[in-house]
């Protein structure tokens, strides 16, 4: 009977992904990749997701201080084989060094969008209305407890 597949990554996938992330970060910090687009860009590797067979590593990166993320991602993917060769000494415990793929990490933009939505006047109004309703319900609960009294006061 085949093992059911899970959508969550295994512990091994997470551990290897973190090792690959650290190795890629070292290569990019050292400036081993000689590319005009990458030489003037600070790149943060936020996450690396491994395929179940550990043969493909998708690195989510955020170019800092650059508006053209697509150009930076294209340059990283162009040099992916070179970067793979540079990370191999740090990953020598692995049987196979994974193929590297670089993707733009949009999670920070998503977090900012959600934060902006939560700060919008409509949501703030709804939250204030909910707080007033909740406070009223809590006061009613407290009054009910006070009216019931405890066993000590009845005796």
UniProtKB/TrEMBL annotation:
Q: What GO terms fall under cellular component here?
A: cytosol
The compartments listed are: Cytoplasm
Keyword Metal-binding assigned to the entry: answer is no
Which molecular-function annotations from GO does this UniProt entry contain? ribosomal small subunit binding
Query: Which residue spans traverse the membrane?
Result: none
- Swiss-Prot/TrEMBL keywords: Cytoplasm, Ribosome biogenesis
Statement: the UniProt record of this protein carries the keyword Endoplasmic reticulum: no
Principal cellular location given in the protein's record: cytoplasm
For the region Disordered, give the residue spans: 134-155
Q: Which GO terms describe its biological process?
A: maturation of SSU-rRNA
Record InterPro entries: KH_dom-like_a/b, RbfA, RbfA_dom_sf, Ribosome-bd_factorA_CS
Please give the HAMAP family that the UniProt record associates with this protein. RbfA
Q: Give the family from UniProt.
A: Belongs to the RbfA family.
Assembly, in brief, is: Monomer. Binds 30S ribosomal subunits, but not 50S ribosomal subunits or 70S ribosomes.
What is its biological role?
A: One of several proteins that assist in the late maturation steps of the functional core of the 30S ribosomal subunit. Associates with free 30S ribosomal subunits (but not with 30S subunits that are part of 70S ribosomes or polysomes). Required for efficient processing of 16S rRNA. May interact with the 5'-terminal helix region of 16S rRNA.
Q: What is this protein called?
A: Ribosome-binding factor A
Q: Which gene encodes it?
A: rbfA
């Amino acid at each position: 009977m085949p093992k059911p597949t899970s959508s969550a990554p295994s512990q091994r996938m997470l551990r290897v992904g973190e090792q690959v992330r650290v190795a890629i970060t070292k290569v990019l910090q050292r400036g081993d990749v000689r590319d005009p687009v990458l030489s003037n860009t600070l790149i943060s590797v936020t996450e690396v997701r491994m395929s179940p067979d550990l043969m493909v590593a998708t690195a989510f990166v955020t170019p800092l201080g650059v508006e053209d993320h697509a150009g930076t991602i294209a340059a990283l993917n162009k040099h992916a084989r070179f970067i793979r060769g540079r990370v191999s000494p740090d990953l020598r415990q692995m049987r196979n060094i994974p193929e590297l793929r670089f993707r733009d990490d949009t999670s920070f933009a998503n977090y900012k969008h959600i934060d902006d939505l939560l700060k919008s006047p409509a949501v703030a109004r709804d939250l204030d209305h909910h707080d007033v309703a909740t406070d009223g319900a809590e006061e009613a609960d407290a009054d009910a407890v006070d009216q019931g009294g405890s066993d000590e006061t009845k005796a």
